[in-house]
Amino acid sequence: MTKRENEDQLVLYGHRFASRLLLGTARYESPRQLADAIRVGDPCLLTVSLRRQLPGAKDAGRSFWNLLRDTGRTILPNTAGCHDVREAVNTACMARELFDTSLIKLEVIGDEVNLQPDPFRLVEAATELVKLGFQVLPYCTEDWVLCRRLMDAGCEVLMPWAAPIGTGQGPRNPSALRELRRRAPNIPLIVDAGIGLPSHACQVMEWGFDAVLVNSSVSRAIDPVRMAGAFSAAVRAGRSGYLAGPMTVQELAVPSTPELGRPFSADSCMGTEIVHGPVSSEIGS
Amino acid sequence: MSVIVNGQPQRLPEPPTLAALLLLLSPSTPFAVARNGEFVPRTIYEECRINPNDQIVIVHPTVGG
Predict the structure, then answer these.
(1) Between chains, do B65 and A165 touch, taking CB under 8 Å as contact?
(2) Closest CA to A155 of A139, A173, A172, A174
(3) Active-site residue, selected from the candidate residues A3, A58, A105, A131
């Protein structure tokens, strides 16, 4: 990690992270593959969940628990599959006790077709969880009013979707996402769901989003471990591009090679000092 | 007389407390428990009385996105 990357840390509820990639732990072919993807992707947080123990499954969850412990990563439990407030709040309470963390990725699903968050119940659940001392990271849409209500409820991080969960479509509403970034400049925004390619991740990071959460785009790749590395690099590249400050887009072409002194130009350069461009590598472009 | 544990009927233990039920079942650790849809902190397992047909849910860590 460079000195600049070390200074540019992601801060979520006071927790500081060098990495800006969050990685889901589901749908890998094997625990080994998951462990390798974590090692190569170097995520700041791992998302996990809770499920009922099956009768007789004496080692239920134990090996996964050991795998998580061995990674040494910070854990972000979710409330995946919850559809109402009571269910989400009680799932969060169980997760807090089990994983010993107040961090919770709050999911309250309102539609089974596209797994879209229920904005009304989401705000209600977030309000209750904040009162109970949780550090809530709500999975939401890019809707500005919803995001404002979540901030009013006490959420200090938001997780707007790029597209429906597991679709890999990439940002479906870029203008609304960018507007959200502009209107909420001081709250960490993590793009969650719908990211399919490293270029999608790089794109939203260039827009100034603070981090990206991916799962299926890594675990369902032909080579998940390699894809984890690709996402890690893409997130870093996008962040660097954002911090570097992109050039202003122009309507018309602007030559990068100096105009004066072209070898066969009718204009003479005699007596005129040729002004070289600032970047020598641009010559020829 | 039974309770429902993760959807399966289970004999009501004696004494009828959550602690006694968990001793009987010895679920894999770590786990967390809800009774009739409400989270039960581990600190009150001993005093948490359970009744016939109560719905007990025992969860463990699993993968998630």
Answers:
(1) yes
(2) A139
(3) A105
Cα(B11)–Cα(B30) distance, integer angstroms: 23
Place of tokens 């972000």: A76
Architecture of domain B2-59: Roll (3.10)
pTM of the entire predicted model: 0.89
Q: Which residues of B touch A61 (CB under 8 A)?
A: 28, 30-31, 60-62
Residue from the list A27, A53, A215 with its beta carbon closest to the beta carbon of B60: A53
Strands in chain A per DSSP E: 10-12, 15-17, 21-24, 45-52, 74-77, 103-106, 135-140, 159-160, 190-192, 211-214
Q: Identify the architecture of domain A3-244 in CATH.
A: Alpha-Beta Barrel (3.20)
Q: For Cα atoms A195, A197, A199, give the angle at the middle one, nearest 5 degrees.
A: 105
Q: Is the dihedral of CA A225, A191, B64, A76 positive or negative?
A: positive
In the structure encoding, which two tokens stand for residue B52, read together?
Answer: 């016939």
Element (H, E) at A171: none
At residue A147's C-alpha, the angle toward residues A205 and A200, to 5°, is 25
Domain ranges of chain A: 3-244
Residues A179-214 have pLDDT tens digits of 999 999 999 999 999 999 999 999 999 999 999 999
